Each structure stands twice: as C-alpha cells, then as structure tokens.
C-alpha cells in the first residue's frame, strides 16, 4: 500500500463505480464562487475498503448538512490512481479535492501543475501551522510552497515472532546482522525466516526497500541532487535484501497480501508491513483473520506474541531510520475553490476525529489540536478503539513501546529525495518504479551491483526528463 492499504477483490468494482461517476458528472465540480447552497464538489479518496468508504460518506453527509455543499465521493484504488489522474486531467474532469494522497502522488500532481497551492496556503494559515507536526509540513512542502494539508501518518514496521526469538535466545531484529542471523536460525521447511515484498512495479516493494535502505545510509540522491542509488551503501542494501529473499523466504512473487498471509498462518518469523497490520493481527477484522495453529484457541495469539521494530540499522548507516508515510488532503487546480477549501477545513476540524477513527492504527494524527498548544486530537486518538467487526484498544494487545512507536512515528520519518529538494523525482518514478524492478532482480538472484546500476540509470533518466 502506498500506504499498505489492504487490497481486496472489491477494489476493481469500486474503481468501476468511480469511473462511471466521473463520466456522469463531467465538467467542473461546482459553481466555484463559494456561494453556499447549491454548490457541489467532487472528492476522491484513496480508501476503497467498503467500511471506510461508508464511514467517509457519513462524515461528508454531516459536512453537507452543516454547509449546504453537496459532496460526490468517489473511492479510488491506489494502484489505479496515476492512470485515473492522467485521464481525468486530460478530459478536464479533475475532482475538487483528493484525500489520502501519499507523498509521491502529491509530487506527481505538483509537477503537473494540478494543485491549487494558493488555496492550500490560505487554508493552512487559517488552520494554524503551529497545530501541525513540523515534519509533516516539511515533507508536504516544495521549498516555501505548501502543496497539501497533511492529515495523518503510518509507520513501517518489522514485525517478528517474539516468542520464537526468545525461545532461540535471539536479539530483537534491529540491524542487518541481527535480521540475517535470526532468519538463518529460524528458517526451516515449515517456517520462513523472513517474508517481504518482491513484485516489480509495486509500491509496496519500493516502500519495503526504502525502509531497509535508509537505515544503511542509502539515499536516492545526495545533497547536490546527484543520483546515488548505485552507491556502495545502496548496493549493500540490495545485497542484504537479496540474501533474505533468496535464502530465507518463500518462493514466488510476494506482495502486501501474500506476506501477511504467511505471517498470519504462522509460517514466517519476520515480516515488513505497516501499522495497518496491528488490528488485523489482533483478530479484529474478519476479512483478514490470523490462521496460525495457536490462533484457533486464541485468535489474538500473534498480537500477543509479536514484537515490532520501527528502525533498522545497516552497517554503513550513521543511525537507524524510521520510514513511513504522510497522507494528505489536496485542493486541485480546477477546483471550486471556496467549497473545496471549506470541505478540507471541515475534515481537519469537526470531521478529523471521525476520519482518524476509521483506522487509528494507520491514521496517526499529524495535527495535534484545533488551536496552537491544544492536543485534543492526539488525546482522542490515544483512546480510540481499532478493528471493524470487533473493536478494542490497541493497549489490550500491545505494550507501551508499540503505542509509543505509533505516536512518535510522524516526528521521526525519513524519506528519500524530499530532504534533498528533489521531491518531484518521487512523482516522476511513480510509473516505472525502477527500485521495485531492482528489488525483484536481486530477489531472483541477480547481481546487486548490476541491479543498483540499472535502477540508478533509470532514476537519472527520469530526473533528466
């Protein structure tokens, strides 16, 4: 998921609905004059699971009741976003607002001049910059230009079988060496030492590798903007991941669904996933229940017997790095500006807690409160229950260290390219995904240096264009 959003068969159906909806509405999203009654806006959200769509529709209905602005809400599958954005922009059918956008997608829109940054700047001033996490603001800026309104964050995790580690006398998997040693020790015919993504062209594969690479000091570009994906640090990161996948993982293509299925079946000792896995691991979502033998007696067995690591240290890295995602609300260049800004303001105020409550384990607020110095939003998040059919607080299953990792994640995120002023490069790579291609190669036994060189050349080509 750019965000590890859980893929389902329903995604294709929902995308079809979205396309039909777009064809039906056509034209602009509203009157554009902020005149109140009679206005309407089109809103895309990258939340395609039915329960999340229903919850968002309820929030939008409350907004309509308060404002008189009708909202046409269209769920968009993440892996279809770029294609739909391109076709809609060409047809003059962009929505007014898009929610749940990942950092790379924001940069895609920015580089194609599809954002209303003036409206965003005005809205941020109204909301108060001091109410936001500074790291979230920095990651959603291009120089002095605010591209989006950051809303929430998730953090990447290395989840491991704490019970198996303790039984084998292993240290927590916080470094390349510790991960490799544990994978070798625990790998067997019945248990993979590690499962991770390896599908070419998949954002989940890129996210997994960026998490690993950052901890080894591997950057996409340096401070001068030169591509460094073929540096020694990056080759070492590719080699490390290749060893894991070739020697201690399961065969075949691995993605967000298959890796989770292996871990949930008790067939893997380690997995890299996002914080979205936490409620599922506690058996709080019926369409993604753990199936391990021990889970038959205790459905929450994996939650109780798993540890999490948020930062991985490589031998060439100066310090461990935390990888995650900031997701945001954007106002498009073709928007009905006033009602669009009014909607985003609502989603960051009255609608903020209900929006976060849709999936608190993966929607950690980056706005602490509704006024500077206030923490009413983060305080509310800490008390929220997670799950769908069954709900419970995370504290019922996980220790304080896990909860602290979630809460502090947005303050510690490291990402490629953006700190070096090359954020638009992330957008340029959304289509070809050369890093995922390189990961796929090393996972299938190709030379890490050659894979890194090919990926670096593809990045340079994208940068030059």
Short description:
This protein has 465 residues and is an alpha+beta fold. It has helices at residues 10-25, 50-67, 81-90, 103-111, 117-127, 134-139, 162-168, 176-186, 203-214, 232-247, 256-264, 277-281, 301-304, 337-347, 352-356, 376-383, 400-412, 423-428, 434-443, 448-464; strands at 40-45, 70-75, 97-101, 141-142, 145-146, 149-161, 270-274, 306-309, 311-312, 321-322, 324-331, 364-365. Helix 8 (176-186) runs parallel beside helix 10.
Measured on Cα atoms, how large is the radius of gyration?
A: 22 Å
Beta percentage is 5-15%
The name of the CATH superfamily of the largest domain reads Periplasmic binding protein-like II
Please bin the fraction of helical residues.
40-55%
Structural class: alpha+beta
CATH-defined topology of the largest domain: D-Maltodextrin-Binding Protein, domain 2
Taking the alpha carbons of the first and last residues, their distance comes to 27 Å
Mean of all residue-level pLDDT scores: 90
Uncertain residue segments? 1-37
Total helices: the number is 20
Main β-sheet: number of strands, strand sense, barrel status? 8 strands, mixed
Query: What shape does the CA trace take?
Result: globular
Counted beta strands: 12
Description of the molecule:
Residues 1-23 form the signal peptide. Belongs to the bacterial solute-binding protein 1 family. Keywords: Signal, Sugar transport, Transport. The longest helix is centred in the first third of the chain and has 18 residues, at 50-67. Helix 9 packs across helix 19 (434-443) and helix 10 crosses helix 20. This protein is α+β, with helices and mostly antiparallel strands. It contains 20 helices and twelve strands. It has helices at 10-25, 50-67, 81-90, 103-111, 117-127, 134-139, 162-168, 176-186, 203-214, 232-247, 256-264, 277-281, 301-304, 337-347, 352-356, 376-383, 400-412, 423-428, 434-443, 448-464, and strands at 40-45, 70-75, 97-101, 141-142, 145-146, 149-161, 270-274, 306-309, 311-312, 321-322, 324-331, 364-365. The strands form three sheets. Strands 1, 2, 3, 6, 7, 8, 11 and 12 form an eight-stranded mixed β-sheet that branches. A two-stranded antiparallel sheet has the order 4-5. Strands 9-10 form a two-stranded antiparallel sheet. It is globular. The chain has two domains: 10-154 and 324-391, D-Maltodextrin-Binding Protein, domain 2; 155-323 and 414-464, D-Maltodextrin-Binding Protein, domain 2, CATH 3.40.190.10.
